[in-house]
């Protein structure tokens, strides 16, 4: 019997010490003792948000011109509700592929919605799109509002002057076609990647209305207009700084009061409230900075106690009438990291160990519901992860909010993956518009997730470099993205994920040329899977990087192995394992589940012994769609998940990590799906966190082992 009961590891961690102000232009007033005393804050809403996810008309047609689509009779278009993608069937399937299997459909989808906007008001009206892939062109009542380039972040259009009483017609053109040359609208990050790019309106759409034309900013790159950070923590005392952006679309000047209040989780008891008097000139946009000094505050403590206060920012006019309000969950916490000791949350060492996750699901692709997302987080919680890398792009606000509530530390990532130019590594991304769009996507990501307690690190890219600085100005590009992130948010750290560079099984010296560009350095390492057979190579490589950059925190952003649920072996080291076959030419790409278990066991053991790691993330929590892959016992799927694509089967290795990470009792017999064995004698492997485990066959005890006897 082989039992594993590794102690919950001193795993690496993620981090971000929030000790700097939001880098935006300032104006207006600061704290003003003479400001009028505001009424006690409540979480009651002032804005009206109208859901626009029902009764859309849709057609998939890349031959339609804009004018044809705008004038089309849509009675023969399909009726759909949001979230929607045309790739639910072909980009989220496990069907076997062959060399002749076509790529999932990358085309142009047209959406039309007839809706009643209600009566005209004296305030402002904004159309909000939570995401549209890859680009979106938007028209309202025949007038083009603009184009958004980026598949993952929210965006808004001011439609105050264009909405009509009664019927309005909204038309959206979404395009997920692959870019063919630099400079095209779709030639933006990500240009490629080992994941599918679903097309469509795959999140929500809504109409946001404010009762007054003076309001908290809605035109700030999809951000909430309020940006709160924990400036300091000392014991149970803390200072929270809130920067509130105001927009005045009125033709007259006015006097206003901004009140920032921190309430308990139920939104009933005010812990602290600060008011500031401000004057706004016609058309003026300003930022108001306020500090909330908190005593005896309950901190956000990750998994141990993910307590979230209600942060209420309210704008009142000179008569004291509430004219706008933003309410957000907010966790008071301080994160920091150490290149030798890992991650610290509120001064307490918390080794970070967790998973990566893509946003797709079997049969749905990117068009998932809140219930689907909840199911994913239930499984992440069950396995005992305390950190989540949201790969390789911004995930939904709802998903990040679930991480806040569970107490996960999140790495949020820019979709800068693999390459910077369609035309190859000799093309300078600064000359094609690619670099500026990447910076814009990064600004959108940071502003939209700025207030989330779970977010601890901004990742500015994944596996982009080819190995040396001469290729595609990669170092300069990463430096530009790092600088952009620090200008937006000086308090959180940055990182980039570096792929292995190798000649055979030998790590090349240029594998670590990108260290020092970002605050921390992360590596994707697949020893004993794509390369290398030694059980110690991963640890040796990590030590090499740590020695070369002793002042920089190091993390392992990816490691793992694929597995097929029907693939098994009696000897995990006794045969060839097929890591992937992207051509689909191999009849069977053999990936025994037992071999994946072995790879994880050996990799994990090495990382646990290295407390300098800032965090480790399994690749991947779930199998996910990757149309060019043919591997394991399924097709068009990356099989490295520890849970299947449909969230329905937990693989063996899920229980290996649950036994190491979770406080719940675990005793699990591994390789139980291997029923047709060749060897007459079976070696029984058990994953458990019990003090001891006994194996009985037909009621007769044949072996017993204590945790202390296990490796």
Automatic annotation (TrEMBL):
**Domain Glycosyl hydrolases family 2 sugar binding, first and last residues per copy:** 52-211
Pfam families tied to this protein:
Glyco_hydro_2, Glyco_hydro_2_C, Glyco_hydro_2_N
- Molecular function as annotated in GO: hydrolase activity, hydrolyzing O-glycosyl compounds
Keyword set includes Hydrolase: yes
Biological process (GO) annotations held by this record are: carbohydrate metabolic process
Which residues are in the Glycoside hydrolase family 2 immunoglobulin-like beta-sandwich domain? 231-333
Segments passing through the bilayer: none
Q: Which UniProt keywords apply?
A: Glycosidase, Hydrolase, Signal
Q: From what superkingdom does this record's organism come?
A: Bacteria
Report the leader peptide range.
1-23
Show where the Glycoside hydrolase family 2 catalytic domain sits. 341-655
Family of this protein: Belongs to the glycosyl hydrolase 2 family.
List the protein's name: Beta-galactosidase
């Amino acid at each position: 019997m082989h039992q594993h009961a590794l102690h919950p590891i001193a795993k690496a961690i993620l981090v971000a010490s929030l000790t700097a102000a939001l880098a935006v232009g300032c104006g207006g007033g600061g704290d003003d003792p003479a400001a009028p005393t505001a009424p006690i804050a409540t979480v009651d809403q002032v804005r009206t948000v109208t859901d626009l996810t029902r009764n859309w008309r849709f057609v998939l047609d890349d031959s339609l011109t804009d004018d044809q689509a705008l004038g089309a009779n849509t009675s023969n278009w399909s009726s759909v509700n949001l979230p929607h993608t045309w790739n639910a069937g072909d980009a989220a399937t496990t069907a076997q592929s062959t060399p002749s299997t076509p790529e999932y459909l990358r085309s142009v989808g047209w959406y039309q919605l007839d809706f009643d906007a209600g009566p005209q008001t004296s305030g402002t009206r904004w159309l909000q799109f939570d995401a549209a892939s890859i680009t979106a062109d938007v028209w309202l009542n025949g007038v083009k509002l603009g184009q958004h380039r980026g598949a993952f972040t929210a965006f808004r259009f001011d439609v105050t002057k264009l909405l009509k009483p009664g019927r309005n017609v909204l038309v959206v053109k979404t395009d997920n076609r692959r870019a063919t040359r630099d400079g095209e609208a779709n030639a933006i990050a990500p240009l490629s990647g080992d994941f599918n790019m679903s097309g469509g309106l795959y999140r929500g759409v809504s109409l946001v209305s404010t009762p007054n034309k003076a309001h908290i900013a809605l035109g700030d790159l999809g951000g909430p207009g309020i940006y709160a950070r924990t400036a300091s923590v000392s014991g149970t005392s803390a200072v929270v700084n809130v920067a509130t952006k105001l927009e005045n679309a009125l033709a007259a000047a006015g006097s206003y009061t901004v009140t920032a209040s921190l309430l308990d989780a139920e939104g009933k008891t005010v812990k602290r409230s600060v008011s500031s008097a401000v004057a706004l000139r016609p058309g003026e946009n300003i930022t108001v900075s306020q500090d909330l000094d908190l005593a005896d505050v309950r901190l956000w403590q990750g998994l141990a106690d993910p307590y979230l206060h209600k942060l209420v920012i309210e704008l009142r006019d000179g008569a004291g009438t509430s004219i706008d309000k933003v309410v957000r969950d907010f966790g008071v916490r301080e994160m920091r990291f150490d290149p030798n000791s890992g991650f610290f949350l509120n001064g307490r060492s918390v080794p970070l160990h967790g998973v990566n996750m893509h946003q797709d699901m079997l049969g749905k692709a990117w068009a998932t519901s809140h219930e689907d997302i909840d199911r994913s987080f239930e499984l992440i919680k069950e396995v005992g992860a305390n950190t989540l890398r949201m790969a390789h792009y911004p995930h939904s606000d709802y998903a990040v909010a679930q991480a806040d509530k569970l107490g996960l530390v999140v790495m949020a990532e820019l979709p800068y993956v693999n390459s910077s130019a369609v035309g190859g590594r000799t093309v300078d991304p600064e000359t094609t518009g690619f670099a500026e769009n990447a910076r814009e996507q990064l600004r959108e990501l940071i502003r939209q997730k700025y207030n989330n307690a779970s977010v601890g690190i901004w990742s500015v890219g994944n596996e982009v470099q080819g190995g040396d600085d001469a290729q595609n100005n990669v170092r300069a590009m990463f430096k530009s993205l790092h600088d952009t992130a620090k200008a937006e948010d000086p308090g959180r750290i940055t990182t980039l994920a570096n792929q292995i560079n190798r000649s055979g099984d030998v790590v090349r010296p240029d594998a670590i040329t990108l260290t020092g560009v970002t605050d921390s350095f992360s590596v994707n390492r697949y020893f004993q899977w794509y390369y290398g057979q030694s059980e110690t190579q991963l640890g040796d490589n990590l030590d090499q990087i740590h020695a070369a950059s002793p002042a920089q925190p190091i993390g392992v952003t990816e490691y793992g192995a694929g597995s097929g649920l029907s693939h098994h072996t009696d000897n995990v080291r006794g045969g060839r394992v097929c890591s992937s076959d992207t051509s689909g030419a191999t009849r069977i790409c053999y990936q025994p589940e037992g071999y994946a278990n072995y790879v994880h066991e050996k990799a994990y053991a090495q990382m646990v012994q290295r407390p300098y790691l800032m965090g480790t993330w399994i690749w991947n929590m779930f199998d996910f769609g990757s149309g060019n892959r043919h591997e394991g016992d399924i097709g068009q799927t990356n099989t490295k998940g520890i849970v299947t694509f449909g969230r329905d089967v937990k693989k063996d290795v899920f229980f290996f990590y649950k036994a190491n990470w979770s406080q719940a009792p675990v005793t699990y017999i591994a390789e139980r799906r291997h029923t047709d064995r060749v060897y007459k004698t079976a070696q029984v492997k058990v994953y458990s966190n019990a003090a001891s485990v006994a194996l009985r066959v037909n009621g007769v005890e044949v072996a017993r082992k204590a945790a202390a006897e296990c490796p």
